[in-house]
Amino acid sequence: MRAFLIDAVVTFNFWVLFYFLALNLIYVILFAASLVEVLRFIKRTFFSDYQQILQSDMTWPISILVPAHNEEKNIVESIRSLQLVNYGEFEIIVINDDSTDRTLAKLIEAFELRRVDKVYRKSLTTQQVRGIYGSLTHSNLLVIDKERGGKSDALNAGINLARFPLFCSVDADSIIEDNALLRVVKPFMEHPGEMVAVGGIVRIANGCEVHEGRIAKVHLPPTSLPIFQVVEYLRAFLTGRMGWSVLRSLLIISGAFGLYKKSDVIAVGGYDPESDTEDLELVVRLHQYCRERKLRYRIVFVPDPVCWTEAPTTFKILRLQRNRWHRGLLQSLWRHKRMFFNPRYGVIGLFAFPYFLMFEMIGPFIEIAGYVAVPAAWALGILNIQFMVLFFVLSMLAGVFLSVAAVLLEEISFRRYNSWQDLLKLLLFGALENFGYRQILSIFKVKAFFDFLRRRRGWGDMKRRGFHKRQISSPNPASF
Amino acid sequence: MEQGGPMYTFLVWAIGSFFTVFVLLVLVIVAMKSRRQWQESRWRTRRAQLEPALFKYVAGREPLETYTGGALDASDRPIVEQIFFDLSRIVSGHVIDRAHQAFEQLGFVDYYIHRLDSHRWWTRAEAAEKLGLMGSRRAIPPLVAKMDDLIPDVRVRVARALGSIGSPEAVRPLVHALRAPGRWSAIRVSGILIAAGNEAVQALLEEFYALPMHAQLSAIDIFARIRSLDTVGLLRDLLRHEQPDLRARAAFALGTIGDPGSLDLLTGALRDRAWAVRAMAAKALGRIRDESCIPALCGALADTEWWVRANAAEALKNKGERGTQALLSMLDAQDIYAAQQAVQMLQEAGVLDTLVSQLGSQEPGRRQEALEVMAKLVRLRRTDLLTEMAHNHPESSIRQRLSILLGLRLSPEPVA
């Protein structure tokens, strides 16, 4: 029996080592791809290009969709901020998803809304629309008041009312930068026939100074938990999504900020109200749709259209958020299981899906099993202390390397965190996140896996407390 | 795992590698940030020192050295350049001429002409962009030579530079550049051709039928933006072209140009077999100041395609009083979609607000006229706005009349 246990532990050790090497090799490939792409992006970015997009009649107009459920604290400020974006022709459609607070009342007061008899095309099925409001003061603002159906349902209602060929989904509790639309639309201008969706980067607003709905000064958050998330977001967006985008395997565009071709989204049936992560599910379905029809298409990430959002500041809300993200990921992987290792779906089926299965779904179990196996091996007297220490140091260093690499990409490219203090904090927290934070996230994911098996649904109670103090929930940076 | 064994060696080697890379990355980050901050600080200081002298120079007539107190350092080049470019955006005339003289005198033009031959495409593109901003006619020949660059981004910037210098040599290569596929190239090239005006129109007219279709579509957009009457003949011909995209774009362009002579053709296009053409024809008719097309637009309100109905309704809204009357008459239409579009446009045009106010009129005829329209809205079940007004209109008599009409039981005071 003891010999068997020893064999099992040694085999497990080798298996974990192999797994670890494979995972880190993929991370290094993603980082290298991201580095090359970021450098290329910077070289190709001329400010005058954006001026031309702004001034051209040929630039596609955009419908901005803002789903809102109980957003009375910040909805008016958010819409005022959206009204100021630097873009030619756009409309803003706020979808009040049966808020029980004064969201609708505040909008009515602030923008002098009144009911209008607008022709509404039901391209996508949604919950009942109670009414459509137009603004007397802002001709490009419309508000849909509808029965509760969740964020996906709200977005689908917005798509039904949208007039323009492109729509941008924006969370009501986020702030998009002035030039974000100009930047996110550029790939559509470059590849109009092929572009299906473009995602922008989401950054964390905790600690930043907000003035009149704009980020006036960028700072790191004052507390530890959001700083860990800043490093995590940098890694996930600048290294992860950038790399996946280069490999044409981008599976996630944050619900907080993404631009889509409306006709393609309608063709796949819009957002899925049954999914916990409607953003991921939509992108997977778009890939599936295009691959099955052998269409030439692109779904890309561009790193400089910035959307600012607030990160959870307590572990309780972080747990709810990550639980939902992970459940959503598992739902989508399960629903589209026929894409696994299916050459029909190209790199998505042969690489991206297996990666998410092997490393995103199973990874947390391996990590937790490792922490359990060490004391078990010690109890059996078969713990190789030398191996354990060396492997532990290696895995921590690999984690630190990836975080620091993401900070390097930030420093090469967009440099939002200007002070030395912020930079040193980023480096420090990039190292520290491997000692506790990462493990806690793994536990959240393991719990989410069992919740998925139990078919638990929903967002949990994500409390909002107004723009400066609020906890929010939305974008999924999906760790690599 | 034994010390010195392959596993041990591998782990130690991997740790050493990761640690070395980690230290290197940190050093690179710190070095980059230090360098950048030093440069920014120097830039700010030097700019503050140079700006007053350069402002005096552009306002004066003496050579640059007179104001700067001697020759400028090579490291000042980007700062001086930026100051002049910033000035160029907000001023014109003599100041621009002086800035251009300075670019020549300081050797900036030669510097960027030389960089047009760089092996890095982005350096060539940047050089072309800067030469365009510097406005030196001496740069025209090397820029024209670069119109054949292999990289489209360079070609477009060269073309734009030639356009901003005001060189007619740019027009032909630009028309050629329209052939490059992609909306992005089209946007960039079109912008320059539009700025070139009539010269671009003539070149495009000559080469139109030799262009591929996507370039023809861009050319039609350019005609629409320039609004040249010289293009009307071609656009009318295109309304009969076999390609629906060309027909649709030509209809749109004729509307933008506002050519009343094309009215019959556009009215005929409302019966085109392609819905996109019908939609664009409706849009175009809304832009032409003529009311004879109103009956045809009323017919288009009952089109099977939503966009045609929407554009026809919008066009009727733009037709003034007669358009409004047509929209009001459409409330009796058998086609429910036509009636709904008419309601939406009447609301957007503010006609319903006026009619609601008429409910408080002392003249029975005007009240009756308004009530009849309201009754039609009730029949069509398009009463959201009326209900809102029944709650919130400031005049109690109007609220009362509306609530009776809508069968509502309302409070005597406005809700809002």
Could you characterize what this model shows?
The complex is a heterodimer of chains A (480) and B (416). Chain A is α/β, with parallel strands linked by helices and 480 residues long. Chain A has helices spanning 2-44, 47-55, 75-83, 103-111, 150-161, 180-190, 224-246, 262-267, 278-292, 315-335, 346-361, 363-380, 385-412, 420-432, 437-453; strands at residues 62-68, 90-97, 113-116, 129-135, 141-146, 166-170, 175-176, 195-204, 209-211, 214-217, 257-261, 298-309. In chain A, helix 7 (224-246) packs across helix 13 (385-412), helix 9 (278-292) runs parallel beside helix 10 and helix 12 (363-380) packs across helix 15. The two termini of chain A are 40 Å apart. Among the domains of chain B are: 229-321, Alpha Horseshoe (Leucine-rich Repeat Variant); 350-416, no CATH class. Helices cover 72% and strands 0% of the residues of chain B. Chain B is built from 24 helices and no strands. In chain B, helix 3 runs antiparallel to helix 4 (94-105), helix 5 (108-115) runs antiparallel to helix 6 (121-134) and helix 23 (384-392) packs antiparallel against helix 24. The mean pLDDT of chain B is 86. Chains A and B meet through helix 2, strand 3, strand 4, helix 6 and helix 13 of A and helix 1, helix 6, helix 8, helix 10 and helix 12 of B.
